[in-house]
Amino acid sequence: MLERICIILVANFIFYFKTLRYNYVSDDIPVFKATQKRVFKNEFQKRWQQLLGSAKIDQQQDHAQTMVIHAIICVFIYLAFGRSDISFLAGLLYTFNPMNNQGSIWISGRGYTIPALCILISLTFPPVAPLFLFLCSSFTVGFIMPLVALGGSGWLILAWMPLIWLFHGRKFFKAVKFKGKSETVVEDRVFHWRKLILAAKTVGFYFFACLVPYRIAFFHNFLQSCAGNEIMRKKAYSFCRYFWIGFLAMAGFIAYSVLVPWSITHWGLLWFFIAIAPFSNIKRNNQEIADRFCYIANIGLMVALASIITQYPLIAIGWLCTYSAVMWTVMGMYRDDYWIIEFSVVNDPHTWFAWQTRGMKRWDNQSYREALIMWVMAKMISPKEFKLLFNIAVVLRLLKNVKESDEYLKLAEDVIIPGQEKDAHEVIDNLRKGRVTLLM
């Protein structure tokens, strides 16, 4: 057992060691700037907040913590699922799986890695389960995640959950309500039968991407703007290969559960479906698609995969080599905030928001004509995005092309998202009065 633990740890540390030289990216940056202004009560509070991800102290320290946490999670996959050949392979598969990039490399993925670790520790050491399940459920993402234990022999740890949910319930629902108001539109809050298509497609996307991670990017074009843009909404509710992958995966799991005695394969699959359900877009409270949403779910899927391929060593080695090769390439996008956008544009060029963000970077560097080019590229992908049309109007005004700017403002007014009319007209009126504001 000790030898296998050492193998998993060494594999993680050798593989991810180069991330210690990486900089902060995306959400890391504003949190780091805010941390510089904070006054901590003592050193313990400072380090505890750093561990939980709510404070960024030093980029090398923060990356080291991310690396160590991911390595420990991989060890506990081995321990929690039986300390067997299957769980050992699952730990290694999870180590290198490219879809884990927003947990294994990105510092701001801490809100997903800590809950994952807490669940695995609770399953491995049931006497300390109340403490770690309490910490897990203090995260919005981790509130219902302990339910993944339902399929295993350690499901009794869930006896603590009613009390824990009672304690954290108010905080959780308040956070969900806030995100629902600030990050969603009317379409996201209305349920109709077509939402089942959306959910099946989302599950299918994550199921396939976790097993065969062929396109890794910080922003994805799949289901982008599925609620706030009529063109993208029509596309989102259409049938595609991911719908059939999701539908067949769920139907196959049900049939497999009925026909075959319960095993670790069943538990792994059930774990995946439970953990991915909150991010299935049936009721959206976050961006449509993000790799970090499958970080916890991927644990179960790797266990299920390992249970099938463990008896085929060459296939297992091939899977590990493929994962590690893809992940090694993907890691480069976290070098700094420039590369994370460039990788997204290259790896998934049909993501309008990646081009939008690329334009914002050019704007910040006062390269206004380049920003215009980036936003025009984004418009070619999604021609009815309000914030995109508005930003083009802004830069055209700056470049003294007022007539064309007014034309784009008119286009923007025609595609205002229902429910956002007041805010939209306010920024439009401000622009006409000469007050420049960009929309991210």
Keywords for this entry:
440 residues; mainly alpha; Serine Threonine Protein Phosphatase 5, Tetratricopeptide repeat; 2 domains; 22 helices
In words, what does this structure look like?
This protein is mainly alpha-helical and 440 residues long. It folds into two domains: 337 residues, no CATH class; 82 residues, Serine Threonine Protein Phosphatase 5, Tetratricopeptide repeat (Alpha Horseshoe). The chain is 65% helix and 0% strand. It is built from 22 helices and no strands. The longest helix is centred in the N-terminal third of the chain and has 22 residues. The N and C termini lie far apart (50 Å). The model has no long low-confidence stretch (mean pLDDT 93).
In short:
The chain has helices at residues 2-16, 28-37, 43-52, 59-80, 85-96, 101-104, 110-124, 129-137, 161-182, 186-189, 194-211, 230-236, 241-259, 264-276, 297-309, 313-330, 337-347, 352-364, 368-381, 386-398, 402-414, 421-432. It has 440 residues and is mainly α.
